[in-house]
Amino acid sequence: MKLTVNGHEAYAYTGGKPFDATLPCIVFQHGALHDHSVWTLLARWFAHHGHAALAVDYPGHGRSGGPPLASVEALADWSLALLDAAGVREAAFVGHSAGSLVALEAAARRPDRATRLVLLATAYPMKVTEALLASARDTPLDAIQLMNVYSHSTIAAKPAHPGPGAWLHGGNQALMRRQQALQKGTNLFVNDFSLCDRYANGLQAAAQVRCPVTVLLGERDQMNAPRAAVELAQALKARVVMLPGGHALMQELPDAVLNELRTALR
Amino acid sequence: MPGPSNPAFDTLALHAGAAPDPATGARAVPIHLSTSFVFESSEHAASLFNMERAGHVYSRISNPTNAVLEERVAALEGGVGAIATASGQAALHLAVVTLAGAGSHIVASAALYGGSHNLLHYTLARFGIETTFVKPGDIDGWREAIRPTTRLLLGETLGNPGLDVLDIPTVSAIAHDARLPLLVDSTFTTPWLMQPFDHGADLIFHSATKFLSGHGTVVGGVLVDSGAFDWEASGRFPELTEPYDGFHGMVFSEESSVGGFLLRARREGLRDFGACMSPHTAWLVLQGIETLPLRMARHVENTRRIVQFLVSQPMVARVGYPELESHPDHALARRLLPRGCGSVFSFDLQGSRAQGQAFIEALRLFSHLANVGDCRSLVIHPASTTHFRMDDAALRQAGIGPGTIRLSIGLEDADDLIDDLKRALRAAQKAAA
What we know:
Chain A contains 11 helices and 8 strands. Chain A is an alpha/beta fold. The longest helix of chain A is centred in the N-terminal third of the chain and has 15 residues, at about 70-85. Classes of the chains: A alpha/beta, B alpha/beta.
């Protein structure tokens, strides 16, 4: 579905069904150098089980226009503006990695509009090493390859995402390269990882959240080690679930994540 | 910056896509000889059918053993995924029909496997898909053959029968300038000798019958997608970017930004044409791939020995192997195929068609048959078999002489192979009388 948000075209995948703003809405927020397609199985399931799904492409990612936004706070405001454009008053916010910080900030800025908050593979602070940022600036394709290795805990995930025969490492690498190539004037890798690194409002935001919170962590996550989410999860009084996977939770464990989301969004 | 790296080729060849079976602990990949798979509930069934969950329903569409093979080949090629098919021909057909329909046009290398040429020139033409053939080295020819209806450029990494090396960087650039993908047949090279995606190809297919399985026991194919081609930006492929009535209005490029091609190929082409691979075949191909790095190294090592032997023989007029400076694509081969140019090549005997036949019949280790890429060495005399209806003039036009012999070098001791060739050369010499 195409919307206009802040004067730019914005895209949200609706799970293979026409969007119905009268149904309970779930906003799926992707991570750095990703787009809506990391959520398609889950968004599709919820769209066909009584929900309205909005798996967004952030500005400058996937099919959404406009320049990439440079802070978690700006992306949170954009997400709330997207809800306005879609005619949605309240929604559950579900975010992965960088998207988890955006979901957190959105739920904190408008606690009256957040029905549930689910943070996958999150960490706070979500610091990025200077060496990685330098690599992202100077040799982004090498940095993407490195991130791809860190993002996976196995070379034999079953069932593969989005279906049998998919090679997760190759899919993730191709997706990140595609996003990086979209922006001619901006290094999207640097933009997306810098906004994670700079975000400093996590604990203050947690104090503003009023809805039930679930945190899903991968016990073999090499990008955001589970221990890096402990303080935030405590501040949110979240239900914490450890899953036997790596950072790419939705790809490595699509069924387990679906089961936990069904519980969290019940 | 330093950090963990991807598993290397040899490791992926053994492990990609496979882990010990969680139900039984089986370490080797089990053969799932089951047509279908039990649903946990009605809801589970519906969500699998509607692509809300990933999983297996029916083995024509997907199968756990086949999925391991598909992931493994995708890993070795650097792709986003793959589809195993009943044969290499089925893989080519699946690629074409996913992207093209009646009124579409293909630009293909003229140096193709005969079966591929038949499919494009005769059979697909009957269904309204036209192909223009260009010499693989004719770069302007590739560019000039593209039409508004063109949907695909197609070539072989090493062409048939002369081992023309496809200039993939240049031909893919021509394709991409026209917002078209380049599909390559990588059967002769396998990912061990070349990974065409690194050079700009967008889609790859293999006859897994050959080096991937490697033992001359099965017929199969694999189609791999790089995920790099942007079907939406191209604007030429409504099959992938507009709602598909055959699957509840699904827009495949929305469902997977980098895997839409394979989703459509599986959900339409495999579903409807049904040229799927048997799980038993998939298992045999996997067995072959586990030793692919070792076998390919030996294939190339043996081939170099045989080529050097033949070059020194007075009865041999020409050896067509790109590692030789005399081959027209020698420089390109050095750039694109630094590990070697495979183990299939042809050479010309000086003499008559009868001498060629005498040569073949004197061989004892080389098997006279119509295949390549076996662990056993193979030989065929095109003038008396695959091209026997042609007179000498027509053979010359096809690049085949009355004494042209095609070899596929296997894994035997190279000295034994050379002894066999010596005996056959003597027999051919005697046949001149």
